[in-house]
Amino acid sequence: MIGLSVAVGRFVEALFWAIFRVAGVVAGIAILSVLGMAAAWVIGRRIWKRKR
């Protein structure tokens, strides 16, 4: 019975860390995409000002 309890505990812990890993990757992608859009907007404004 103790072995089963340890196995369930390890499974829950692995699931917990996997969820946090996925959440971290999603947050990282979101932050990088926002930074990329901001950089593209700034570069686009500079190009637009140069054409005028």
UniProtKB/TrEMBL annotation:
Keywords: Membrane, Transmembrane, Transmembrane helix. The chain crosses the membrane at residues 14-43. This is Major facilitator superfamily (MFS) profile domain-containing protein. The lineage of its organism: Bacteria, Pseudomonadati, Pseudomonadota, Alphaproteobacteria, Sphingomonadales.
